[in-house]
Design goal:
261 residues, MetI-like fold, 11 helices, globular
């Protein structure tokens, strides 16, 4: 059955509307001029070479990497047990609790950030990278639960039952039987939640204090026209890194799906 030509044209226009502006980011990052406008004056790699000499940028990158890794591990660990509970057991309030876990996906980020700032200050926790980690873990948890629920959905429970019949305890069964089967889903969850944390701006802006993450650093630089070319180069590298992480995460998610077929 042939697809309507109008539908194909609409799909191309829709994709162009979404991604064409993003493609201008790496294009202008090679522009030798400091003004983002056509025509491009010339081509250069100078803006990329200058990135390594900026100590503040390197520190912000290190902050983002640390926050992203810790947040990804924490959200995936909590999401692992939550996903197992939601797929294995039926208990009173399970739907409500799952809805609460998914709530960060629909609550405006500015509301979450301001609420967390007030809560942390009232508890004696000043804006810091620790506060950012807690905020990003809360934000990334729904993504972890969704991915890991998919990994658990069609898991053959008889494998666990067979292991217990052979004398394995609950922990040993989970470690030697369940975990290897859902490992691709765990890897996918870590990669996706790391990407969510690494790219997040609003919570980091409110909670980072005097130790900014990379998105906060980029925002502080983009206000100055002279620093815009460096920001475009940095943004292009981040765009490439995010795409690679999501491609790898999708690969492991598909592996998890195939292992259940």
């Amino acid at each position: 059955m042939r697809r309507p030509s109008g539908l194909t044209a609409y799909a191309f226009l829709y994709l162009a509307f979404l991604y064409l502006p993003v493609l201008f980011l790496p294009l202008f990052s090679f522009n030798s001029g400091t003004i983002v406008a056509f025509p491009i004056k010339g081509w250069t790699l100078d803006w990329y070479r200058q990135l390594g000499a900026q100590d503040t940028l390197i520190q912000a990158l290190a902050n983002s990497l640390m926050v992203g890794m810790v947040s990804a591990l924490m959200s995936t660990a909590m999401g692992l047990f939550a996903a197992r509970a939601y797929t294995r057991y039926r208990f009173q309030g399970s739907a409500a609790s799952e809805g609460l876990v998914m709530l960060p996906l629909v609550v405006p980020g500015i509301i979450v950030a301001s609420s967390m700032l007030v809560l942390f200050i009232s508890l004696g926790l000043k804006p810091s990278l620790t506060a950012v980690i807690l905020g990003h873990t809360f934000l990334a948890l729904p993504f972890a639960v969704s991915i890991l629920k998919s990994a658990f959905d069609d898991f053959d429970v008889s494998l666990e039952e067979a292991a217990r019949d052979l004398g394995s305890g609950v922990i040993e069964t989970f470690w030697r039987v369940t975990l290897p089967v859902i490992a691709p889903g765990i890897v996918a969850s870590i990669l996706v939640t790391f990407t969510v944390s690494f790219d997040e701006f609003v919570l980091a802006f409110f909670l980072s204090g005097n130790r900014p993450t990379l998105p906060v650093y980029i925002w502080s630089q983009i206000r100055f026209p002279a620093k815009l070319p460096n920001t475009l180069a940095l943004g292009s590298l981040l765009l490439l890194a995010s795409i690679l992480l999501l491609v790898v995460a999708e690969y492991f998610r598909r592996r998890a799906t195939k292992s259940r077929v």
